[in-house]
Inverse folding.
């Protein structure tokens, strides 16, 4: 494997510095000037690699989102029954959001804000999730694990039922209020909801 070139290594260093600043100061207080100072370059030089502070944030959030999407794609491509896939899919997504909100709140807040504003990045992520989930639902129908009906209707049903566990704003609020642990935690409630959802999908008729 070849060593990274100068441009690649500089880009990675800027991302690492930006990540520290976003985590420490939040997106609003982070500046390209301070990132440049720590990197030992002018802010104009930073713009050679990233056109704005927003672009730095999008790259950091995007790298995290792509990691989730790859894991979800692995679930979709697995040889398991569709109901098992859907359960694992929803559980992984909900846990990934919750763990990020609890363990890396500044970066998750950037994602939640992007989702609220329906930015291009957040829209792409949501579209990717729906595309992957649709594959599981279509497989479930073809193997008669799930009942019939229009796929879009099933998608809406799933998203409506699990909304509070995968909506970024809802997850962030639950973490801030300490409602994700202990008796009646998000984990236990999510598991109950998903089990009921799977039971309902199995009994649907077109």
């Amino acid at each position: 494997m070849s060593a990274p070139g100068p441009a690649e290594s500089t880009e990675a260093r800027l991302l690492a510095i930006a990540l520290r600043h976003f985590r420490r100061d939040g997106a609003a207080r982070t500046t390209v000037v301070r990132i440049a100072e720590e990197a030992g370059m002018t802010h104009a030089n930073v713009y050679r690699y990233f056109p704005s502070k927003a672009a730095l944030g999008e790259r950091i959030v995007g790298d995290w989102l792509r990691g989730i999407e790859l894991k979800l794609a692995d679930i979709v491509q697995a040889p398991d029954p569709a109901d098992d896939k859907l359960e694992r899919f929803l559980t992984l997504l909900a846990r990934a959001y919750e763990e990020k909100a609890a363990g890396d709140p500044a970066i998750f807040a950037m994602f939640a804000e992007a989702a609220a504003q329906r930015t291009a990045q957040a829209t792409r992520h949501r579209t990717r999730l729906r595309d992957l989930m649709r594959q599981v639902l279509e497989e479930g129908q073809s193997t008669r694990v799930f009942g019939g009906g229009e796929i879009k209707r099933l998608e809406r049903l799933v998203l409506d039922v699990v909304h509070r566990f995968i909506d970024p704003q809802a997850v962030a609020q639950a973490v801030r209020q300490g409602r994700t642990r202990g008796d009646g935690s998000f984990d236990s409630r999510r598991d109950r909801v998903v089990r009921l959802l799977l039971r309902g999908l199995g009994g649907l008729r077109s």
Notes: The longest helix spans residues 53-77. The chain is about 80% helix and 0% strand.
